[in-house]
Fold this protein.
Amino acid sequence: MSDGFIELRNIRKVFAGVVALDAMSLVIKPGEIHCLAGENGSGKSTVIKIMSGVYQPDGGEILIDGKPISAMSPIEAIAHGVQVIYQDFSLFGNLTVAENLAMNVHLGEKRRLMNWRRTRAIAREAVDRLGVELDLDAEVASLPTAGKQLVAIARALMSDARLIIMDEPTTALTRKEVETLFRIVRDIQARGIAILFVSHKMREMLEISERITVIRNGRKVAEGPTGDFDEALITRHMTGGDILNEPYAWIPPPGPPPVPRLEIRGLTVPGKCEDLSLAIRPGEIVGLSGLLGSGRTDLALALFGMVPRYEGEILIDGAPVRLRTTQEAIDAGIAYVPEDRLTEGLFLPQSIKRNMLATSYERLARRLVIDRSQAEEMTQGMVRAMQIATPTAEKPVMQLSGGNQQRVVLARWLLTDARVLILNGPTVGVDVGSKAEIHAKIRELAQHHGLAVLMISDDVLELVQNCNRLVLMHRGRFIEDLPAAAVTEETVSDRLKTFT
Amino acid sequence: MALLRRSETVIAGILLLAMVLIGTINPAFWQLDNLFSLMRSNVIIGIMAMGVLLVLISGGIDVSFPAFAVAAMYLTIKGMLALGYNGVVLPLLAATLMGLAFGAVNGFFVYKFRMIPLIVTLGTSAMVRGFLLGVVGTSMININKMPTALIDFGRTDVVSVTKADGTTYGLTAMVLIYLGLALAMHLVLRYTMIGRSAYALGGDPEAARRAGFDLRKTIFFIYCVAGALAGFAGLLHSGMIWLANPRDFVGLELDVIAAVVLGGASIFGGRGSVLGTMLGVFMLVMVKNSLIIMRVDTTWQLVVVGLIVIAATALSAWRDRRRAA
């Protein structure tokens, strides 16, 4: 069978003795939308790099139009019509849209001189071909993520592409932008160009693709038309096991209702959010969703003492607190895991231990010197409790997987004896397996340690499955407060779509 | 509106304001002989600034060019004296090539070992200066020994004016060389692929590699050109001051980098223009010149230059962050 545009047959790739891909096969038919699904570390990016000629396989065959290709360089891959849109888009932020678009043409023609009129003409054509509006003279750095992605797609389409590989294209997009992207993807497909969508977001895969290939540990484990798959099946293939997806149920303790762990009354951050009132009782996980700019992050920052100029009242276990600095928030028992754990929360080159203890040094050094044995004990305990996969707590955090990194951040806050846990996008960029483990951990913290959890996320499914209540926010106000049992992912998504 | 947002317009505005201010404090500022002497002081710093601009755009930094300039200048003149050669074109070519060779060393370490340009150029700077003083010599070559052709070349004027008291002053022809080189740099940066590759490298090195730029060529080009311009400027300088001092140009790197950053080039790479740089050079030279006229101590001039570097860098960092947001 060789009806594919590009086909990988029994590809093997070894890095320094570690097998990254083994007997990996993948067929992309002309003009189809194909999804390559797999967890982080399953070999997805190695597949991309082999298809785009960046890596040479150690075994197996690559066929294009049924003909075997011996060794393929990146230039040859492009000549065959394979284009990759990387996660970081590979654009020059300091240059204009026009120059970014025309750059490859100039380089391909091995030009020595720069013709600006021609640059604009090339760019105009590229943008028209994609059928979108883009200011050619705008600096790319000034564009939003979705705009940058459009530039990258327009650039990929210029070179008579026959296959466009998109690496995690929806990661930084809002739901609305994802819909626009999908429309463009279908448009591209209508021109007979195949698309390989590399992702770990199952809902999106099921929505956009025609065929799915699932890989696990460098091997193809399943392949077929999308209609044959559902989320549970893909998950099972990706992780090699079932993941429990029971909604979170919070049962109020018998007797009078307990005092809320966290209560806010009329909280206002000028220009960001207005008159917010909410109570979260011990053991509750409350989901908060809304579009970007709805004020949800501002609320989180105010609760973490990063907006000293807020108005209104904040009570922890019934006692009013004033949060003007992060230290005051930590002392009050509030923990915050930020949106982008990689840039905001972790010291990547530092050890797990130092990262875990980052907020505890104040306590560890009561008598000026750090109590080393206590520090060691605390770290070891946490590595065990959080099941962080590492031989030693001295390992730099950047060598851990996304899920394990997230656990280090959680561990740090547990060490401060937090009573209120605020999570902003807790599983962004985390693969399915780790995601489920993090969710289980969060539930356990709420259920068995009596924490009040406020979970902010774009991933509505995540909220519906893990929260007992859902609060929707728009333009700085709470619009709805719903019991999770009463909603489904669809109803919430539809409700969010009405917010514009 | 687009014109107003350009950093060159802002710099030109600030420059004009500063000129009016200085002219009010000291009316002698607007006299033709002062303006001519100001422009003369632009030449050497300006030529070197063109090289530094190229390096900054590519995301690097160069602190070795004053050392290269002084070495190329002193070696060339020593050579001319030893050979008894008296000329202009060949010596300038020799100094330029020497600077280029030194620059290639910078390029080699930056490309091959992916070293931080600051460390590389600090190292080559110290080595070149050390060798020059230790091996070639420490004695100054004064006007009585300087090759006359160089001096004659350096004193050429474009226009000269005779004052009422019979003394004459003029605008040095070296300004034309500076303007010519600046124009050439502008054309290279704006209209050649190698110039655009410097911007690409400064914008995102990884993306530049993926796009298929030959980064080895780009990096060598950048550091070689910076070195060549320094060598050229070094020899030109000795012709203009009739003196070859092997300890010259100490601390000049700060002045030149200050001027380039003042001219709107980003210290993080990817942004900068020749016009802005020329305005920045003019501003720096003017401020220093005014401090001298106002009899401000040289130590305090250092403070001012340091302040300019920090203020201009902070401003451009703030600007770049706002753009990215």
